[in-house]
Amino acid sequence: MVLHVSDTHLGAAPYGLTLRYRDVYEAFVEAMEIALREHVDLVVHTGDFFNSPNPPPDAYMVAAKVLRKLRDRDVKVIAIAGQHDMPKRRGLSPLQVLESLGLLKYVAVDEIAHWRIEDLEIVAVPYKLRDEISKLKSHGKGILAAHLILRETGVPQYDARLADLPEGFSYIALGDYHKHLELRLSNGTPVVYTGSTEVLRRDEVTENGRIVTIVDLSKREAHIQKVTLRTPRPWIAGRFTDVKTAIKTVTERAKQFVSNGLKTPIVYVELECKNSDLTEFYHVMDNLLKKNLIAYYKVEILESWSRDFEKVVLEEVGEVTLRSVVREVVGNDILASRILELLNDPSRESARKFVDEIASNKELKEALFKLLVKTKGRLPTRKTRAVESRNSHSFKKTGLAKFIR
Questions:
Q1: Which tens digits make up the pLDDT trace of 109-156?
Q2: How distant, in Å, are the alpha carbons of 19, 280, 298, 310, 361 from that of 347?
Q3: Is there a single domain that holds both residue 265 and residue 275?
Q4: Is residue 15 located within the same domain as residue 108?
Q5: Residue at 46 is within a domain
Q6: Is there a single domain that holds both residue 274 and residue 322?
Q7: Is 12 helix (H, G, I), strand (E, B) or coil?
Q8: What is the domain count for the chain?
């Protein structure tokens, strides 16, 4: 049997939160432990093993501990390089570092790899050679593994179409798309994105959670079993037209997650209502944070920005330019000029100068606050919280220690 895992992004810290940094490691560990629990013979990782070509030391340590366990149990691991595993210019991929340490034996980084593992043919296509995939052929029972985006995912910038994939393989394992998706070639061959092991962005949230895929190739046709991971942090995400419904939904679902033994959820809410209605919402969210029923919340206010923009466009002005739009929306000439200067020169020094001037100028500070109130999502950003449990800051003691001991 084969375990298909992808896009583990070790070293990532979504939203910059310590608890999310740890979530990524926990999801990876759970996914790989499924290989041991289910007694699989082979793990196929289809790219973005790490989040960066220069991962932090603890990412290497977590990977090393898990890979050592798999090696000791004679579970073979195949890893292909995604774009996050590739150095930008020169240097080794972190996958090659693990290979040099004897922790990975089958690695595809700079070339398309062909391996014969017992009676199974494996063809591995790293991200940098994804355009070559249509030229490949299979000569028997085998797996094609690649890191690329198909048009059928709905992502605008895609690398290939389903019809471009070669026939003849028993199973096609893909990575790079973070949601679980199962497709079929015209001859019935399964083409599977198993998805990332943790949610890294809001648009990756699904009702089905995070999934790894077990593939049985002992019969003529591949048998696919989806296994839902339990450690990924749940999300409560949605759009609401009134605050009370949002409060009720978030509170009930948060309590349900915690009572079921899951992690405290991340809350991402879009509200189509007036800013003055938000006081109660913030109060309830802060209380949920204090009671450790949610881990983090973010709110976006819809309609304000679009209404202001429409006002600028619909008014008959002589010429609509970026400067005129910014001035109309901002409502303060000096602040508008400073924002335009920052847009023209988005350097660290310009940003520091902008912040210093705002801090020292009461008029600009008040103008900026008014802008934050009326434009889309800016007031919630001011109120967005990233609060972790008291113990989560003891990172070495309670966080990574269980992974690297």
A1: 999 999 999 889 999 999 999 999 988 877 678 999 999 999 999 988
A2: 30, 38, 27, 30, 21
A3: yes
A4: yes
A5: yes
A6: no
A7: coil
A8: 3
Q: Print the domain residue range for 291.
A: 235-302+381-396
Q: Is residue 9 part of a domain?
A: yes
Q: Which residues pair with 223 in a beta bridge?
A: 216
Taking only Cα atoms into account, the Rg of the chain, rounded to an integer number of angstroms, comes to: 25
Amino acid in the structure at residue 338: R
Residues 312 and 368 in one domain: yes
pLDDT score recorded for residue 364: 77
Q: Domain holding 80: CATH number?
A: 3.60.21.10
Kind plus residue range of the DSSP H or E element containing 74? none
| Tokens representing residue 31 in the block | 């996914």
- 251-309 pLDDT, tens digit per residue, is 999 999 999 999 999 999 988 875 556 788 889 999 999 999 999 998 888 765 444 44
pTM reported for the whole predicted model = 0.76
Give the residues of the chain that fall short of pLDDT 50. Answer: 305-319, 376-386, 389-398
Tokens of 162: 């389903």
Instruction: Give the contacts of 296 (CB within 8 A, at least 6 positions apart).
Output: 15, 17, 19, 266, 267, 385, 386, 387
Judgement on whether residues 221 and 246 belong to the same structural domain of the protein = no
Q: Residue 397 has what DSSP assignment?
A: I
User: Cα(326)–Cα(347) distance, rounded to whole angstroms?
Assistant: 20
Same domain, 199 and 85: yes
